[in-house]
Structure formats: C-alpha cells, structure tokens
Amino acid sequence: MGAGQFKITGYSTALFSTWFFIEELGLLLDAGDGVSASLLQKSRKIKQVFISHADRDHLTGLLQFNQLNARPGFPIIHYPADSGSFPALADFGGKFDHHVQLAVWEPLRPGDEVVLKKDIRVQAIRNGHVQAPADKSKSLSFKVVQMKRKIKPEFADLEGSEIARLAQSLGRNFISEESQETLLGYSGDSPVEEYERWDNTPILIHEATFLDDSTPMKEKANKHARLDEVMEMVASINIGTLILSHFSSRFSPAEIDEAILRECKKHKLQIPVYRLLPGQLHRDILAQDPINA
Predict the structure, then answer these.
(1) Is the pLDDT of residue 5 over 90?
(2) Contact 269, 227 (CB under 8 A)
(3) 92 Cβ contact list (under 8 Å, min separation 6)
(4) What DSSP character marks residue 251?
C-alpha cells in the first residue's frame, strides 16, 4: 500500500476539536467532537483509534463514537499509558451506555507497535506536549509504517531462480531481512522537536497552532508548535506531503494562508502543502488542491 492511496478526512481547530480518519486503514487519529456526526455510517469502518493525549478537544468524540459503534472487541482505543483520564472515561462510558463495555482500551508507551493489518503497524512516539517525568507517558505522536522483506545485499545480484532455490532450501530469513517504510506521520499536539523523527515521511500531519513568535505562550501550558518552526523543520528533511492542522481560531483563513505561502517562499518548498482551516471539515484532503499549487 502506498501512502498516496490514502483518503484522509479530518477536522482540526485548536481548543475545540481534532480528528483524522484514514479510510483505507480503518484508522482514527484522535477523536474530538463531531467525528461521528461528520463521518456518519463511515465511522463504522474504524477499527482502531489512537488518542495522542487527554486534552478534551482530542477525546470527547469517543462517547458518541462508542455509543454508535461498540461491538465485541471493537473499537480498540489506544491511549498514553500514564494518563488517568482514559480509564476514567472508559469507566464512565461503560456505566452511561452499558454496551460500550465491549470496546477495548489499550494503554501505549513510547516504542510500542500495534498491528493494523498484516504488514502495517502504528508506532507510538513520545512527544513534549504534556510535560511528564521521563518514565511516564502522557502524550504521544504516531507513525504508520509498512513492514517489507528485502533481499540481503550479498544475494542482490543473483538470478530470481537462484534466490527462489535458496529460499526453499535455507528459508527466506537466510536470504532476506525485514525492513520498514514509513507511510504517514502524525504529530498530535507537539512542539517541533527532533527533526529526524519525521525524516523520509511521505505524508506528515503536523500541528501549527501559532503562526510565529508574535503570539505569547503560557509558560506552564502544554507545548504547541509554531508554523514557522514546522516549515523550517520540513525544509531541512525529506517530506513528501505536508498537512498542517490545529491552527488557533484567533487567526483568519487569510492570515493562515498568507503565512503558509510566505514560509513556502522563504524555504523554497516544492512539496504539496495542505491545511485544515479553523472551523472547517476537510474531506479527502489529498484530493484537493494544495495551498501552494
């Protein structure tokens, strides 16, 4: 499966609601208000949900989503392991709508991998949005990867028939090794941190709550990204497509678009850049024209 085949629908406005649905994977990234009302019957396609952190704009859609879709073993809801909000929400939901006890709640720690399909996994990555001790996990980013097998370098020049003979006699692990290819990255709410985290990512969904350093940030508040920092990072690594999200509603669509185009020009970015404007539902994002077309 190539990343370009993904049909991504989402809504993201800082403080109010954020969620992204990747239809081909039956995957929901975060679950803010309105996810069920927007997807309607398509929400039934969601098998696994990954919640980045416990801010209410990323999880309050779970109550309605579970009420409509919970069935034996589904959905599977993954959440940061040390965030007490999720067990509390699971307990409340089970009492409020008894049948949603069928949903599965699974804690995640950085480095954990979850199988979506036979060869596709989601990896959990610690981020700095919620400040926590090093041994605690309260805020996560996610990476969707595809596992592949490739011929070991020492056998790369052999004919196909010889490779097949060796695989039959010695086993495929003897002549090949497992590798992974990133398909999609999702920052969740997170400041820009290690650039290499997202290097070689075909589709990166990254928050950009603020446009630049002119907006003061509360020192003790959860940490967010600025558009100028995100664009500087993207210009420094290999990204195929960028989807910008989680803009503050204090900015108008015109201000956001002007800032994005200014940053694209500054960094000479040639990749497609899409954005989710505050208050707007965006269906099949990659089928639209990028802002910098």
Answers:
(1) no
(2) no
(3) none
(4) S
CA-CA distance, 51 to 31, in Å (whole number)? 7
pTM: 0.91
List the domains of the chain with CATH numbers: 3-287 (3.60.15.10)
For residue 154, the one-letter residue type is E
Kindly report, residue by residue over 145-190, the tens digit of the pLDDT: 998 877 888 878 878 887 788 778 877 777 777 788 999 999 999 9
Taking CA atoms, 30 is separated from 17, 85, 101, 108, 203, in Å, by 9, 14, 20, 14, 17
Name 207's Cβ contacts closer than 8 Å, sequence gap at least 6. 12, 14, 187, 188, 189, 190, 224, 225, 230, 244, 245, 246
Alpha carbon of residue 247 to chain centroid: 16
Q: What is the dihedral of CA 233, 133, 188, 100, to 10 degrees?
A: 170
pLDDT tops 70 at residue 220: no
